[in-house]
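Hi V.,

You were right to ask for the full record rather than a summary. Here it is.
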Amino acid sequence: MSEPKAVTIYTRGIATPGGGAFGALLVCDGRCKELSGGETGASNNRMDLLAAVEALKALKRPCRVTLYNTNGYLIDGMSKGWAARWQEAGWVTGEGKPTAHAELWDALLELCAVHEVEFVWLPAEGIDEYAQCHRLARQVIQEQVRRVVESRAEPGTAPDRGGR
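Predicted structure:
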């Protein structure tokens, strides 16, 4: 059996009052794959979790992964074993409260059973790959805003694009 491929993944989740988005960059053997997506009404934490889940789901076979993100909730939740403890406790925190985003934590734990994943905290500044993930997420947010503006335009009129 061959050695699992080494994959580096950078992820970024962002949120605005109207919606959230993520960008992910997967790097393997000098090749890059970009992913992005979003949800309405989502938080930064949810988008960072979704970015990690979607990036890992994109891998076609078990891999050795280093996943970078700036979100301490995601990084600590996985590397310090919080998510596994929440799962064992029936998705209840140590304070007895329901675990936020339990379905994403559950999916992440399942994917980590397939892949060997190291979660690494990343400083937010000066990393080109992280900046690319941010650009991907911003493009999704811009598309979400465009759709909202167009849906609010009166029938038969074009939305105001600010130009004259």
